[in-house]
Amino acid sequence: MYSRLLKDFKEMYMAYIPLMIILSSCLGSVAAMVILMQDRSTAQVIELSLCVIACMTFNASILAQMKAKIVFNLLIVSLLINSVIILLSLI
């Protein structure tokens, strides 16, 4: 399944770029909002840093024109990190 998704991703890479940036940035901003709604603590700073690092690494990979496989993997990592942060913050 992964190889099929990657193949489709490589074929439509230029069309997916705006969608990927919007998806990653929106999910990252929701994660940042949820983090900032918590009480102030060291954990909050670490979570917010992780959220920002994940989103910015993904965005930088697109701007640096890295290979499609690397960009795809970074998209998955960014979405997973931000989703986990959101789920853990809401529990």
Broad structural category: mainly alpha
State the helicity in percent bands: over 70%
> What is the H/E order?
HHHH
Termini Cα gap: 31 Å
Number of helical regions? 4
Mean pLDDT: 93
Radius of gyration of CA atoms, rounded to a whole number: 14 Å
Strand content: under 5%
How many structural domains can be distinguished in the coordinates? Answer: 1
Let me know the number of strands. 0
Q: Which consecutive residue ranges, at least 5 long each, have pLDDT under 50?
A: none
Global shape: elongated
**Biggest sheet features:** none
Describe the protein's architecture and organization:
Keywords: Membrane, Transmembrane, Transmembrane helix. The chain crosses the membrane at residues 12-37, 43-63, 70-90. The chain is mainly alpha-helical and 91 residues long. It has one domain. Helix content is 87%, strand content 0%. The protein is built from four helices and no strands. The chain has helices spanning 2-11, 13-36, 42-63, 68-90. Helix 2 (13-36) packs antiparallel against helix 3 (42-63), helix 2 packs parallel to helix 4 and helix 3 packs antiparallel against helix 4 (68-90). It starts with a helix and ends with a helix.
